[in-house]
Amino acid sequence: VAKMCAAAAAVGSVEAASENAAVVAAMKSDLAAVPKAAADPNRPVYHFHPPANWNNDPNGTVWYKGWHHLFYQHNPYGAAWGNMHWGHARSRDLVNWEHLPIALWPSKEKGEDHVFSGAAIEGPDGRPWVFYTSIGNRSPEQWLAVPEDDDLMVWKKHPANPILTLKIHGGTQVNEWRDPFLFREGGKTYMVCGGNLRQSGGRGAVQLYEAASPDLTAWKYRGPVFEYRDREVYNIECPNLFRLGGKWVLLISPHKPCEYFVGDLDLAGGKFIPETHGVLDAGHSYASNISFDGTGRCILWLWGQTDTNPDLGWNGAMTMPRILSIGGDGYLRQTPAAEFQTLRGEATSIPAIALHNQFISLSDRIAGDCLEFDAEFAADSASSLGLRVRRGADGKAGLDIAFSPTSGTLSAGTAHTSVSLDKTIRLRGFLDKRLVEVYANDGEAAIFTTTDGGTDNIGVEAFAAGGSARLVSMKCWALKPASFSMDRFR
Ligand code: FRU
């Protein structure tokens, strides 16, 4: 018996050593790519981004012991999608970050090839535990990982894995089953997962499960809590279902811009009842996650897709963390975290300007590729008005942030969404090198997008097309870079 125990311990330590080798290699690869990524003058400086290489979805977002923890889908071996690990960083203020060691990596010795997206929930030990989708040469499974320290730096995959397999659905066939998200209500713990019911004649759907043991290793299937009925949405990724301001909110990633529903949740019947419905961000963001901080703010996290050339050593960012609330009309509102004001330089105020079917340069007062602006426009006869940013001195076009008072459309570049039909609009915008983020009115619409202007494309113009409009007031700030410490990325 003693011999067997010694042998088992030896196997265990070999496993641990090979696991350790996997993360050491991954971090070495990231560190090797840092100089290349840092050399790109168009890389964002205050939007969250990994040390180097690829990122997609925000994962396991949680506020714990005074820190905002952000985990994210990460390929340490290149600036394109692949080899999914969970990168990790933490911040006290949502603006300045400390990169931490890669938190989760595929356990090849357990047949795991990718650690896909997932979410955190308080575990029985009071620490955040995470569920994620384990991908291997088999059907997807939902796995549990548990931290061993309060800094959430050291993780152990739970010995009871897989926690949920496709078998849990009995006769119901769920395809593309992934992206667990968790919430607690009435003393019970619930999980939702994305996927679709196409094999059973259905569509993109969100599945609901209820924990059947306090240690979160036993679960029962409650059925589809939501099925997309309005249109043909073939699959749903990264569902988030949570309570906000007395209502329930469902966020979904349906392989096109994220959508939201505000409504109620009938937990006895296991059904979400939508009341209002909108697009979360009409631009190039995807795969939402949320967290609640110590003051009760609901923070929205989104992958900012940058489509960067992988040769540049990086690809991807996060949108600015946004505070979510529900407006008096029952639709969502989102505003960038106020903490970003700490990056502002001195304010420049632009006096009112009348615009008659023309572009007027503001570049003698404001110019740059790291700017924040807050502008109010009033439309008269104009069919479109707004700001052209990242304009080149050589007349290169730049990117238009435009509002159409006739159609109630907000656009940034090619992305567009609807806003209230009104004669006035407030436009808030954030330029961060290649990234552009725009908010309309009190956060009723948001767009994250990118632009390919070179480093000398820094001009700003106000415009009105198809008639007259007025720039009523405008404030602008140069923004400083946020800090991204690498001291603990080792
Ligand atoms: C969304 C997504 C998730 C999946 C992850 C893999 O962008 O496709 O459904 O878990 O990315 O990286």
Describe the structure in your own words.
A hairpin with a 6-residue loop joins β26 and β27. Helix content is 8%, strand content 53%. The strands form six sheets. Strands 23, 24, 25, 26, 27, 28, 29, 30, 31, 32 and 33 form an eleven-stranded antiparallel beta sheet that branches. It has a six-stranded mixed beta sheet with strand order 19-1-2-3-4-34, with helices on one face. Strands 17, 18, 20, 21 and 22 form a five-stranded antiparallel beta sheet that branches. The longest helix has 38 residues. The protein is globular, with a radius of gyration of 24 Å. With 490 residues, it is mainly beta. The N terminus is likely disordered. The relative contact order is 0.13. The protein binds beta-D-fructofuranose. The site of beta-D-fructofuranose has 14 residues, from β1, β5, β9, β13 and β17.
Give a nutshell description of this structure.
The protein has one helix and 34 strands. The radius of gyration is 24 Å and the shape is globular.
Cα shape? globular
For the largest beta-sheet, the strand count, sense and barrel status come to: 11 strands, antiparallel
Average pLDDT taken over every residue: 95
> What is the distance, rounded to the nearest whole angstrom, between the alpha carbons of the first and last residues?
39 Å
The number of distinct helices, counting runs of at least 4 residues, comes to 1
Content of β-strand: over 45%
Helical residue percent band: under 10%
Structural class: mainly beta
Residue windows where pLDDT falls under 50 for at least 5 positions: 1-11
CA gyration radius, whole angstroms: 24 Å
Let me know the number of strands. 34
Bound molecules: beta-D-fructofuranose
